[in-house]
Amino acid sequence: MEEVYKPAANPQEVELFTNPTSSTICCAVAIERRTFSTQLATMLIISSFVGALLLASEALACAGHENYHAMGIKRQTAPVPPKPADWAYEASFNWGRINPNYSLCQTGTQQSPIALSFSHGLALSHVLKFNYPNKTAGNFYNWNYGPAFTVTHPEGVYTNNPSFTYDDMTLYLKGWHIHSPADHTVNGMRSKAELHLVHVDEEGHEKAVLAIRLDPGNANSTFFNQFPKMIGFNDVGMQQEIAINHMPALESVLLFNEFWTYQGSLTSPPCHEGIRWFVSRQVMFTGVEQMRDILGASTYSARAEQEVWQHRIND
């Protein structure tokens, strides 16, 4: 009798309508396997093609991705390390005890910030002379606690950055960040925020900070008008390349023509000392909505005031 072979409803099954020999079964199974393999390969090719089309359409439709490129925003690590897990500003009184590397926060003799007062008088020496260009390129981001900016420069080269000179010493702007509320009080009054312009020597060692207190006023700040939408404290992986003019900030406080100065420290662990602080007597005023934007992008970052010891205020 002639053998008749046909695939069953299930492609993996084979029906034989005869008394098949073993060789006949092997042949039928081999044919069926080749047929199934061909079908499977065809299905995989079609699936891959459809998947590629879907991915392409999703990329075109992704508004967030489009916006980052349109705004010049990059999703990458910001130029400062993430907030350490073992310290917080709310517990700054305890920094020197939680980590041996932070011992200076507890034992230092020139710790910052300190309470300032008109009873201290104002500085009569250490006059500042600025050499700031109209535009400075850099990265705008959030330093975990508020708005921040780092100047773009070749690796290890700071001497082309904006600078200021005092006592025949020239220091270079590394970047700035904002604390909220202000670190320093004046006559017991604390401003809503404080701008710190951090300056380094030729080798990149931090040597001085220019501090400008910020409060809301009746008109928008020309300095803050330059910035795009604030980057929030919960989006520290984002940064934006921009060029800004720092002179409006300095001019708002009359180029530091009146200030307090003292020998201090960094205001976060490890609290290194040897930092010359210049705190402007004048306040930079922002618009109400500008201040709300600053505060909305910030979290609490004011270290507890330190006792005045060997700070040599205005000396």
Topology:
Layout: E1 5-7, E2 14-16, H1 22-61, H2 63-71, E3 73-75, H3 95-98, H4 104-107, E4 115-116, E5 129-131, E6 136-142, E7 147-151, E8 163-166, E9 169-179, E10 185-186, E11 189-190, E12 193-200, E13 206-216, H5 222-225, E14 238-244, H6 247-252, E15 259-265, E16 273-280, E17 284-286, H7 288-296
Parallel strand pairs: 4-10, 13-16, 13-17
Antiparallel strand pairs: 1-2, 3-14, 5-8, 6-7, 6-14, 7-9, 8-9, 9-12, 10-11, 12-13, 15-16
CATH superfamily of the largest domain: Alpha carbonic anhydrase
Report the radius of gyration as a whole number of Å: 33 Å
Distance between the termini: 117 Å
Low-confidence stretches: 1-78
Number of strands: 17
User: How large a portion of the residues is in β-strands, by DSSP E?
Assistant: 25-35%
Structural class: alpha+beta
CATH topology of the largest domain: Carbonic Anhydrase II
Summarize model confidence as the mean pLDDT: 82
The residue fraction in helices comes out at: 10-25%
Q: Would you mind describing this structure in some detail?
A:
This protein has seven helices and 17 strands. It has 315 residues and is an alpha+beta fold. It folds into two domains: 5-61; 74-296, Alpha carbonic anhydrase (Carbonic Anhydrase II), CATH 3.10.200.10. The strands form three sheets. Strands 3, 5, 6, 7, 8, 9, 12, 13, 14, 15, 16 and 17 form a twelve-stranded mixed β-sheet that branches. A hairpin with a 4-residue loop joins strand 6 (136-142) and strand 7 (147-151). The radius of gyration is 33 Å and the shape is globular. The chain starts with a strand and ends in a 19-residue tail after the last helix. The model is unreliable at 1-78 (pLDDT under 50). It comes from Colletotrichum chrysophilum. GO terms for molecular function: carbonate dehydratase activity; zinc ion binding. This is Carbonic anhydrase.
